[in-house]
Give the backbone structure.
Amino acid sequence: MTFPIIIAFFFCAVAFIWYRVRKVLSYWSDRNVPVVDPKFPLGNLGDVGKKHLGCVLQDIYLKLKNKAHFAGFYFLLSPQIIPLSSELIKNILIKDFQYFSDRKIFHNEKDDPLSAHLFAIRGEKWRILRQKLTPTFTSSKMKMMFPLVIAEAKNLQKYIEKHINDGPMEMKSVCVRFTADVIGSAAFGLECRALVNEDSEILRVGKHFFSFNTFMSRLKFFLEFLYEDLAKALGFRFNHIVLEEFFMRVIKETIEMRESGLVDKNDFMKHLLEIRDSDKDGKIFKNFNELAAQAFAIFFGGFETSSNTMEWCLCNLAQHPDIQDRVRTEVREVLKKWNGELTYEALRELTYLRQCIDETLRLHPPAVVLFRDCVKEYKIPNTNQTIEKGKLIFIPVMGIHMDPEYYPNPEIYDPDRFTPENVKKRDPATYLPFGDGPRNCIGMRFGLMQVTVGLAYILNNFRLTLNSKTATPLELDPTDVITNVKGGAWFDIEDLSKNE
């Protein structure tokens, strides 16, 4: 082959690739669907890493919100969908759930067995497992676990007292210790001892969870999302092997203790074993790995998102001392009414604290986007538009929560947005920190319980202000999947018992 022919072949190949890419990136404009102009090769994700994914989606949502029922969105070079109207969002999550019943979350049962958990699995297997696991989180079960949460909250208080004179305290790490101990104790009967042992094993391995702080880790995540079959064939893993080895060992030891009769606790693990023992035909748990995956999802899903919420709530209250004082007054009045003890019934009376948590979850939802997969073609009611089978739905939770139509002056922290009267005025589809519909967060009640208890103990005993080590205004870490504070949040803490 002569040199001119090689050059000609090269330019033809480049021209063909250019044509195909341009064709792909005109997918939505050719269909008259509003879209923010994508850039090769990352589509609309070019700013991810410089900006948080939630902020990228928020910008698109707010820019295109009033132009259609949904907007186009390019996940790399793949055209996907961002719903814009609350009516369509309700249809996707609830009314027409059968069209959007799956999440497009990568899982690889063969090479990464812990990834095949309730959050990721699909179809009939998900439906059966969700039905079986839901009773674990009823009010009666929460009440039985409550004393264990209180015990860890007292340990949390002791931990802060022990370290209060060590200088500014980074509260995310403190909250992680608390939620790890709560989840371990109340859900699995494990003694993680993160509030006692400075070098707790759970904290060391937990650093490998939600680790997306490099370009390659984010690229791997994107490829798993779009090319699941190829990723499985290549043996891609979502979870780090260190995390898997630790958790498999711990769950095996826990089950052995339960089966020996030495331990019998009415917790999440007991319920999992009851499901396993009643599953004679193996429809739910074919093996140990499938049971371990469900335990893993509850454990790591609970302690990371709850600690994140606690940290942001404390940040907000530290920046609004009047609100912090109001919460503290409420906590103390409730404790006085209940003879100094925070009971399960007393928890319901902490209404203003709950409003503060709700407003925190509006401003900083741990899950900034809800994923849904269109499993069969869907015609949008009262329109001539359809959503094709296989299209991925990106519901922009942060964008909805920052929409001034629903939340005037959305950047301002205002717990009064969540008084019962104001909540009734709003469309429920405008507040989605836990999702909605059949695939909402199964552990929502447990998560709110531990967050409320932990914050009540902190605020009753300590006054918090932001230390100068904390960069203000507070920003999201753009390299994280969930909404962590960039650079961490450091607090000066005053022990109120010394002044009373």
Notes: Strands lie at 70-75, 78-83, 169-170, 369-373, 378-379, 386-387, 392-396, 462-466, 490-495.
